[in-house]
Amino acid sequence: MRDLLDRAASGERLGRDQALTLFQEADLLDLAAAADAVRWRLHPAPRVTYVVDRNINYTNICQSGCLFCAFYKKPGDPAGYVLSWEELDQKIEQTVALGGRQVLLQGGLNPELDLGFYRELLQRITARHSIHVHGFSPPEIVWLAGRTGCSVERVLRELVAAGLGSIPGGGAEILVDEVRRKISPEKCTAAEWLAVMRLAHFSGLRTTATMMFGHVERDEHRVEHLIKIRELQDETNGFTAFIPWTFQPENTRLAASKATAVEYLRTLTLCRLVLDNVPHIQASWVTQGAKIAQAALAFGADDLGSTMIEENVVAAAGVSFRLSEADLIHLIESAGLMARRRDCFYNLLLDRPAAAGQGGG
Ligand code: SF4
Predict the structure, then answer these.
(1) Which of 19, 50, 110, 113 allows an S-S link to 14, with CB 3.0 to 4.6 Å?
(2) What residues in the chain have per-residue pLDDT under 50?
(3) 44-341 CATH pick, 3.20.20.70, 3.90.1150.10, 1.10.760.10, 1.20.1560.10
């Protein structure tokens, strides 16, 4: 085990079996030390980055009905919505006023919306606001392609022409179809998710990747997920960051107990050690809260993600951690590290951090 840990810490590529052995058998603090060594080799500056942005969910109507999702409403449900252009403008103006340079646009698979809606949405945003649009995870793009009869390539081309700047790595859950069939049978397959990302990367878009774990998957599925991301990254080098987060069971149709903080941190180290070619690993304060997110900075994470001026999806599952930009800075600095704002591509921004009290609300 010591030899394997040393090899992992020194950057030697882990195979499936080695990764699984480490994950299942190594001591948690030994894993943390190995992941932390990798983190410092990749990012020698004592710096933790974050981005000021807002999640805008343009619709909650979705016909996919994933069992783990507490956010969606079925078509026809009176609580379903599509944001009006005025609401959208207001949200973006508020984001810009708080120093935000990007918005994350994501929504349900709404049968009422066609490619024209998406084009107009992007064109309106880019015509009226100076803001980067990080939007539409692979399931939305696969859905849109199926609905319009266009290829994924064509949909991507149209979205980019209308103003799309990059793609979030949502909807990955676990990239193993045996798992996907149990938790999201109507959503795109693992191969389709990867194919969208491959096409996006080859067309010049940068993306993130995520993993939602702690439900019906087994340890080997987590490893398999990471290996698939690593293989695609070897091909394209298009992933900027990886964001693992835990399934939040409340208000969902999936019976599973919530993963513990130890389970989260152990998985985070696995991500840092296996994904030797993905530059950044984000801690998920939205699902873990401030204290575990701060601990995550010693378990391989080098980024705290977004201030999330607005977040609806995890909140729908009864989790309501909120942190302002000042809170994020305090979290980073009280861990003895330097906080820096960044953009979507991990370029450091020079603007001064916002005053205490701004951000998350
Ligand atoms: S996770 Fe996304 S695709 Fe699945 S039900 Fe929720 S909104 Fe729909």
Answers:
(1) 19
(2) 354-361
(3) 3.20.20.70
